[in-house]
Amino acid sequence: MFIEADELKAVYTRKLTEHDLADLRGIETTAHLFQAWVDKAHEVRLTVAGDRLLAAEVHAGSAKAHTDWRSDYRSLTYRATETPIDVAEAVRRLMACLQLRFAALDFIVSPDGEWTFLEANPCGQWDWIQAATGLPIAEAIADELTGVTA
To answer: Structure pTM?
Structure first.
């Protein structure tokens, strides 16, 4: 998000074309993140609170949301899901390495079920996921803050 001419604006993920890559002048003036496109069935927001991993599938209902689900929240549907054991183990190692007890992690899940890690946000939003899925995220965070073990 940024403000331009007193208006709050957002920049969403988009696919680059050959034309976009033909002239990269000025690219050094701000931060960018480039990654290969990964075909997806859906995405997963995995909220980690202490030892608890709370996963929700995020299904895009529009072409815009399929590219970046943040661009069309109204088209999204959600479903609680399980985290594969290998992904859970890797997430726990990452959290330990980063010395984090909370983060919201995003993944792409391919049509054949393979999970691809995108990012971990130590200040990630979670309330709308809890409201949509019933996952006990607030409870997990409260337990973590008060030292209650699950």
So the answer is: 0.85
